[in-house]
Design goal:
The protein has 15 helices and ten strands. With 370 residues, the chain is α/β, with parallel strands linked by helices. The protein has a five-stranded parallel sheet with strand order 2-3-4-1-5, with helices on both faces. Strands 8-10-9 form a three-stranded antiparallel sheet. It has a two-stranded parallel sheet with strand order 6-7.
């Protein structure tokens, strides 16, 4: 099976392709000479604003546009910003600001909101100064703030300097647009994919609300396995991504609570493997097998043994966080507690194995046969 290596740049969400897809109209609006020296670009995170701006400045019209990211090192008023950039080795902007070659060019200031150090008032001051520092130059201010927040952050005297200038809005992608971008990246990487695989990934964003950054992470995981993608590979990558997410969930817990959740999960899996129903349902487990597994995990993790009451306290905390469902079963023997994880137990298990290996250096995967 052919595999691909070193394609991580292609599957980075901010990769700049040779041919811009989906955002051609927005790029034309940014580049259009409307007779106004300033423009504003709005749109939520990961909607192609950075890629579009960089494509314009780096690939399409580098003789006319200069791309400047506003990162945290530029959090100050505009005059010191210019000095800081000049001394930070940004040759393109140094030349742009200090020579005749900058005349007629357009600066694309990406993530302008990051110039606000502590409050919206900081951004107001910076934007007020932009007009004074660049009276003859043209520039585009790009932000992921929604328009109402942006305008509400400006004082009246600053707002008056920006009213009436073109506003360019990057709207949400639809499934077909995401599919176009995915197909382009796969082609650039030298891979191929079935329509089902591409549609499966696109639906994660458009139908299920999965962040596009995570969709591309799953795509890259699948491509690392094979240069020919199908739905099975994509679904495996989706499961691995879920495992990483559950690993992060475990890391957010105390060690005791994490081990209690893992104990319930392990007991569930063992119960499912011995049940005549197998994996046909999400199994529930009683206190004793879950508690015994908890003690076993404590020993493997070289943690102090605790009482059954301590275990119950952890389960109660997990229940309050929505990670575990607990209930009481009434019968002649009393009311033993029963537990199960709220998420699919196989996905939780993959996350717990990753967490346990990272925290305690022990591999639990051999304890439960696949």
């Amino acid at each position: 099976m052919k595999t691909l290596q070193n394609n991580s740049d292609v599957f980075n969400l901010n990769y700049v392709p040779r041919d811009l897809l989906v955002r051609e109209k927005e790029a034309e609006q940014i580049m259009e000479d409307s007779g106004v020296g300033r423009k504003l670009v709005f749109g939520a995170k990961d909607l192609g604003k950075t890629v579009t701006a960089r494509w314009i400045a780096e690939r399409h019209a580098p003789d006319k546009f200069v791309y400047i990211p506003c990162d945290t090192s530029l959090r100050m008023t505009l005059a010191p910003v210019i000095g800081r950039i000049a001394f930070s080795g940004n040759e393109s902007l140094r030349e742009f600001l200090s020579s005749e070659s900058g005349r007629g060019k357009v600066i694309l200031f990406d993530d302008i909101h990051k110039l606000a150090k502590k409050s919206d008032k900081d951004l107001n001051n910076v934007l007020y100064d932009f007009v004074d520092h660049f009276p003859k130059m043209r520039y585009v201010l790009i932000t992921n703030w929604p328009p109402d927040r942006f305008w509400n952050s400006l004082a009246d005297d600053t707002k008056s300097r920006y009213l009436g200038i073109p506003n360019i809005i990057f709207t949400l992608y639809n499934a077909e647009q995401v599919a176009q971008i995915i197909r382009q990246r796969i082609k650039v990487a030298g891979a191929t994919a079935t329509a089902g695989a591409v549609n499966c990934l696109a639906a994660l964003y458009a139908r299920d609300g999965v962040p596009l950054r995570d969709v591309f992470s799953m795509l890259y995981e699948a491509v690392k396995k094979s240069s020919t993608l199908n739905e099975t590979l994509v679904k495996t990558a989706m499961a691995n991504e879920s495992a990483r997410d559950f690993s992060k969930s475990f890391e957010s817990l105390t060690k005791r609570d994490a081990l209690a959740l893992g104990a319930i999960n392990m007991a569930q899996i063992k119960h499912a493997q011995t049940s005549i129903l197998g994996d046909a349902m999400e199994p529930e487990v009683e206190f004793r097998p879950a508690y015994d597994t908890f003690i076993h995990l404590l020993k493997r993790a070289s943690q102090y043994t605790v009482s059954d009451e301590t275990f119950r306290q952890s389960v109660s905390a997990l229940s309050e966080m929505g990670l575990v469902k607990t209930w009481v079963r009434d019968d002649l023997r009393g009311t033993p507690r029963k537990y199960k994880t709220t998420a699919p137990y196989n996905a939780v298990w993959r996350g717990f194995v990753a967490y346990f290996k990272k925290q305690f250096g022990e591999d639990l995967s051999t304890e439960i046969p696949a």
